[in-house]
Amino acid sequence: MPKVILQSELTCPECGHKKMETMPTDACQWFYECKQCQTLLKPKAGDCCVYCSYGSVPCPPIQLAPESKGKGDCCGA
Q1: How far is residue 20's CA from residue 9's CA, in Å, rounded to a whole number?
Q2: Cross-referenced NCBIfam families, in alphabetical order (predicted)?
């Protein structure tokens, strides 16, 4: 089993603020509020969570299924 990276740096598309966060392993995170401008981030079309859309590392389920290339059925999406 590959090693899963749990730290991902989220970048707000509105203000460019970056914040290192720990990804949950038991659920996808569909919403994230930017700590600087308070924009509510939501996954882009085709992505399962905010980490796959705005993070430096995709979420754990996607890391464990690299053939999905960040798309497809993750966390019930």
Answers
A1: 4
A2: GDCCVxC
